[in-house]
């Protein structure tokens, strides 16, 4: 708050003498640190009467019930003037409003003619609330008022927690029978005790957080080290107490100042910590023994170097390409549209792989299958279709790369190249002939396989996926078949 000029006070005093509530100038004021300075500032400009155009309320507050009922009219002015005092927080405004709403902390008394207040609120214009300090009060009479005392609790205090950290290592060499202790990280003042063989614990200590102590017992007894530390005490929780005064005649809030703080909860004792570690006994001396070499199973090793795996399997193939369509001109009916596609099928295959090491192998495979194909012709007036079974054949060869080494479950991935295709049937619809040249040709692809052995024997389960990049020529153009094969079968390793 800034200090008000005497001239400004004088102009407001003249209004107060005509029964106007005179409390402040339009600027906020700071409390004078010395009473003499306040007297000098107010000399000749004392406020004598309350109520008038600067009052917050136009009607007198009758009692505490009336104060509580008219709290909504007062709340804005209360928050505004408290916000202008840097020594008061919004929590004080919240507590004051709650105290008025509850009514339990409100008592009725008279406001003395020379009541000492830190500041007092006034309304220089409708809807705007300010405060004046010092209030320069020398009233002609006492006024009925409400004194409201509020408490704002401090934050819940947190005690410094104790920390206990300890580790211990036993030296078992004949020339160095001792313990190495480390309590770094424990709270200051931590104490350590040592108990061996059921004997009472004895206090031990050393410089800093790490030190060594001689082993006082025989090395065949366990040792128990315990660290204890005390944390900081729990501080008392306090509540700050604030006193306010509100004259009934005008509802202008006055701040009387802060009273002595009240203890909400007393200080508490510190919470200690404790941690123990057990150090084992020293064992008998062991003569150096060379480590046992772990040799792989010779059968498994042989299979990785020069073994064979044969995999008979059933497969279903699913063409990944689209059907072919084109518009044609028939000599006897005119424009027409034809389409052709190869549908899914099934078959039988077998692969033989030569293992050349834990990772690499070379595989050849033969697959024969059977599926369906369909040709459709639509000239706008009539439509027809022709279905044929087609025979799928493929021969592939390529490397396999194994990810799980020798023996057990075998997961592998491998690219391949090959030769194959479909049989080439002819299709007739409405006396129109369609040719699909399913001649065999070069193909390539990749596979992912998994072999799971049945126990320790040579037989196992085989599953796999195999993709072939394969196209065929037809009267409607090149048809990209690209079948995906899903394999289920057996694996036999020898």
Describe the protein in words.
- The chain is mainly beta.
- 12% of the residues lie in helices and 49% in strands.
- The chain has six helices and 26 strands.
- Helix 4 runs antiparallel to helix 5.
- The longest helix is centred in the first third of the chain and has 13 residues, at 71-83.
> Strand sequence of the main sheet, in spatial order?
14-16-17-18-19-22-23-26
**N-end to C-end Cα span:** 98 Å
Q: What is the number of E strands? A: 26
By oligomeric state, this entry counts as single chain
Sheet of most strands? 8 strands, antiparallel, barrel
Brief descriptors of the model:
494 residues, mainly beta, 6-stranded antiparallel beta sheet, 12% helix
Summarize the structure.
The strands form 5 sheets. The protein has an 8-stranded antiparallel β-barrel. It has a 6-stranded antiparallel β-sheet with strand order 1-4-11-12-2-3, with helices on one face. By secondary structure, the protein is mostly beta strands. It has helices spanning about 5-15, 35-40, 65-70, 70-85, 90-100, 300-305, and strands at about 105-110, 120-125, 130, 145-155, 165-175, 175-180, 190-195, 200-205, 210-215, 225-230, 235-245, 255-265, 270-280, 310-320, 325-330, 335-355, 360-380, 385-400, 410-420, 425-430, 430-435, 440-455, 460-470, 470-475, 475-480, 485-494.
